Amino acid sequence: MIKTFLIVFTIFAIFMMGVFGFRGGKSRDTPVRLFPDMDVMDKVKSQKPSDLFKDGVGSRPMVPGTIVHSADDSLYSIEFGEGREGYYYTGMFGDYYGQGMPEELKLTSESADAFLLRGKERYGIYCAVCHGDAGDGAGVTSKYGIAGIANFHAPNFATDQYADGRMYDVITNGKGNMGGYGYNIPVTDRWAIVAYVRALQNAKSIPLKEVSQNN
């Protein structure tokens, strides 16, 4: 029984080597791919014609509404600030983090509420999963043992200890376990998130008696 198995196995091994060859061997024949893993796929190379499209041109124009990522030259409504300088884009004045909202935002008493609402929406999308809805660091990811999630109500994150520009910079470039969101969140939305975090901190610091009196 064992002898028969060895004979069959040897014949099978020789057959396989004859069909597929040795690993690393060179051949002019088209390789046999049992698992192609996208090595061969339908695609149109740059500047090549294609009969898939009516005009026969393979290279297609951008979809209407497409925004160039580094488009911060006032031609587009969304800017990511790539390669730009100044407090609005970096959160810094020279070598120092700045405080307050940039003049470029042109905030007024009429637009402030909408700006905070935008910050709340963006915070809920990008930040709450880790930092929690209340900004206390008790988001969903904290339940999985991820360490170092910032609690914005801790004293070291107060305005006089942690500048607005520094918070903006961390959102942009990341810090510690947190990756940067400079390629995901536009400049204006980053500042809106900073403003909303400050609003969360201020709401937390109002005494309950004061709240009840105001109500």
Q: What's a quick, concise take on this entry?
A:
With 215 residues, the protein is mainly α. It has helices at residues 2-20, 87-90, 112-126, 128-131, 164-173, 187-205, 208-214; strands at residues 92-93, 96-97, 174-175, 178-179.
Number of helices: 7
Overall mean confidence score, pLDDT: 84
Distance between the termini: 91 Å
Largest β sheet strand count, sense and barrel closure: 2 strands, antiparallel
H/E series, N to C? HHEEHHHEEHH
Shape: elongated
Q: What structural class is derived from the secondary structure elements?
A: mainly alpha
Number of strands: 4
Question: Roughly what percent helix?
Answer: 25-40%
How much strand content do the residues show?
Answer: under 5%
C-alpha Rg, in Å? 29 Å
Corresponding CATH architecture of the domain at 87-214: Orthogonal Bundle
Query: What is the C-level CATH assignment of the domain at 87-214?
Result: Mainly Alpha
How are the strands of the largest sheet arranged? 1-2
Low-confidence stretches: 210-215
* CATH homologous superfamily annotation of the domain at 87-214: Cytochrome c-like domain
User: How is the CATH topology of the domain at 87-214 named?
Assistant: Cytochrome Bc1 Complex, Chain D, domain 2
Q: What features would you describe in this structure?
A:
This protein is 36% helix and 4% strand. It has 215 residues and is mostly helical. The chain has a domain of 128 residues: Cytochrome c-like domain (Cytochrome Bc1 Complex, Chain D, domain 2, Orthogonal Bundle). The chain has a two-stranded antiparallel sheet. Strands 3-4 form a two-stranded antiparallel sheet. The longest helix has 19 residues. The chain starts with a helix and ends with a helix. The C terminus is likely disordered.
